[in-house]
Write a structure and sequence with these properties.
about 30% strand; about 25% helix; about 475 residues; binds 2-acetamido-2-deoxy-beta-D-glucopyranose; single chain; 13 helices; six-stranded mixed β-sheet
Length: about 475
Amino acid sequence: MIIRKCRRLLRMRGVKTFKKMFVYGSFSLTFFLIAQRILSDGQSQSIQLPTTKKTTQAEDQQFQIVFDPKAKPQVKEKENPAENANLPEQSPDLYNLKRVKGFSYDLFLFSAVVGNSSADKKWDNIVLQGWEHRMYENTTFGCCIKYTSGLMLPVNMTRKVHWAYRNKVQMPVKQYICPNPRHNTKDIIEAVTISGSKKHEQCHKKYNWYITPYFAHAHKKEIAVCTKFMYGSLPADEILSWFEVHRRLGVNKVLTFTYKLNPEATKVLDYYKSIGMVETKPFSLPRASRGRKVVEVGVKNMQAWNDEQIPVYDCFEKLKGYKYVAVLDIDEYLIPRGNKTWNELFDGLFKVRPWAAGFTFLVHLHLTTWGVTSNSSQFKIGQYTNRTKAMADRMKHISMPNRLGVGGLSTHTFTPNWTMKYKRFQAKEAEATLHHFRSCRKDWKKKDKNKCYELERFTDTSVSDIFLPIEKDVLKLKASILNT
Ligand SMILES: *[C@@H]1O[C@H](CO)[C@@H](O)[C@H](O)[C@H]1NC(C)=O
Ligand SMILES: *[C@@H]1O[C@H](CO)[C@@H](O)[C@H](O)[C@H]1NC(C)=O
Ligand SMILES: *[C@@H]1O[C@H](CO)[C@@H](O)[C@H](O)[C@H]1NC(C)=O
Ligand SMILES: *[C@@H]1O[C@H](CO)[C@@H](O)[C@H](O)[C@H]1NC(C)=O
Ligand SMILES: *[C@@H]1O[C@H](CO)[C@@H](O)[C@H](O)[C@H]1NC(C)=O
Ligand SMILES: *[C@@H]1O[C@H](CO)[C@@H](O)[C@H](O)[C@H]1NC(C)=O
Ligand SMILES: *[C@@H]1O[C@H](CO)[C@@H](O)[C@H](O)[C@H]1NC(C)=O
């Protein structure tokens, strides 16, 4: 109890300390590493992104540890006091992050998702999300699976998926794919971990080193959004307006992680969790080791941008059974033209381009730095109705997750399953655009002081037209959430 109180205190302090750093809003990243050429009229041509890597020679050699799948449940683990000294306690309820036995502070598991590799396979595929020190780049590991029967089974890893920043940071993010050899039995996976840092290592018996997997279910008619993080001083009002607009547009589910989120916003998010629209957990970062920079969520550097891929990978695996999946930030509104719902818009787009894996959307910036254009609303989206012309500025996308390649989802783009001949397209401005409410970008101010003011402004009420008629109800909802 006391420990919890202390933690809460620390967390609250954290909010203050980092207030300056946490200017709420979007994660606008410079993905200059990602080469992509999108043709202006629709079709985008496919340069394979460096997000995944076919098994290289090094990986082909497999790891040298020989695992026997028929091995009996493991013998007692040998405790290594030196290794276990000074370890923080890791309770599964408090942390979704796990260190892995044998890797010191060089490998952290964030989540594990069990899914189906194809329509006729049942729970045959395990995908783990995590961070790994770059020195392990060419090392392939194994997985250890703990079943409800008590059996602990070591398996060889099928594939390691690398994110674009693999050479740029100390702790690049990874996906590890392992098979579930018992998918045809009644034995259910209870916990999973990585193994193989040392030769002849067997599955570790201590539950502490394992993570509990999430089972990805089919939701064939539903639309989900991945918003990565909600953190710091993000105002409750911005969560409310985003959810109420997107709920009306037909969004069924939102996955997000919180990080030092203020209490009022947390209450609002808890409300959406209580009605089943949100799945959320506190986000945690691996601690610094071997020169890893101590980073926070939302700061602008390589390691932080790399870290943002973790919730996207996590979303991708968990949301594989949804009809459509979007990656949007909480200050971005994807608005179809002509009073359509998302479902109507997407169905229409995919009907015209049956080989699409997904669509990117042009962006209208509603720059708050310009000043308010209307005082008739107390919400940002009602106050800033001026926007730029449609720009290819950090575009976002929606996709059909079952048409993407391995590790094929990221913040600003997606990788279609090329072997199935799926392609990437860009939606026309007349179909839908993304309305991004934000202040002028700092690097604009640096390079060209006036750029922000030189941009042409257009008055566009397409977001506020949806919101203003419901604002009164939203205020009532807010009062009822915050007063309980
Ligand atoms: C992994 O292999 C690649 C290709 O052979 C090489 O360029 C890279 O330096 C290797 N990484 C490490 C950490 O050894
Ligand atoms: C893992 O790979 C090694 C080397 O290729 C092989 O000897 C072993 O049988 C494999 N283990 C399993 C469980 O498939
Ligand atoms: C995977 O298969 C199981 C069992 O058939 C099913 O319940 C589940 O919805 C499937 N998941 C997805 C994402 O299709
Ligand atoms: C938009 O659609 C809603 C619900 O279908 C309808 O009530 C409203 O009148 C429509 N508005 C316009 C401008 O077409
Ligand atoms: C909104 O209110 C502020 C403060 O009262 C005022 O300065 C501003 O001119 C108003 N803006 C508009 C567009 O009415
Ligand atoms: C593409 O789809 C096919 C058929 O479903 C599948 O066998 C293959 O593994 C997929 N490729 C990728 C990169 O996901
Ligand atoms: C909004 O845009 C209109 C049309 O370009 C312009 O006349 C007006 O001054 C702008 N107001 C603000 C606050 O940007």
